[in-house]
Amino acid sequence: MINAVAGDDRGGVTILAVVFVVLAFGFTSGLARVGVAAVQGARADRAADAAALAAAGVLAAGGAPDRARAEAGRLARANGAVLERCACADAVAEVTVVVGEARARARAEVNW
Predict the structure, then answer these.
(1) Which domain range does residue 70 map to?
(2) Which of 48, 51, 79, 102 could form a disulfide with 40 if both were Cys (CB 3.0 to 4.6 A apart)?
(3) Rounded to whole angstroms, how far apart are CA atoms 37 and 20?
(4) 2 within some domain
């Protein structure tokens, strides 16, 4: 009868191993999501900067605000982003772009 009770402990290691694997998978998944968010944020920042500079360049050359918005959209797409907003007036271009779930804003101003 004592041997039967001692033999029941063998399945405990399997349960602990399963729990460990589930926890490790959850931790790894969370880390991957943080990494993806960081990469998308960096891409959004880069795309916003490029779009704002492109729009400001058009404005500096005497181009119309509509042309500046079109150029900002082209540069945003070239950098894997979607141009959400572009306020181009006088010598200032302010843009907002989206990459995945990340959103970034940038401003470029032409000083004569």
Answers:
(1) 12-109
(2) 102
(3) 26
(4) no
How many domains is the chain partitioned into structurally?
A: 1
CA 33 to chain centre: 11
Q: What CATH number is attached to the domain comprising 75?
A: 3.30.1300
Q: What residue has token string 């959209």?
A: 73
Measured CA to CA, the distance from residue 89 to residue 92 in angstroms comes to 6
Residue 29 within a domain: yes
pLDDT tens, the chain, 112 aa long: 455 555 566 677 788 888 888 888 888 888 888 888 888 999 999 999 999 999 999 999 999 999 999 999 999 999 999 999 999 988 899 999 999 999 999 999 988 7
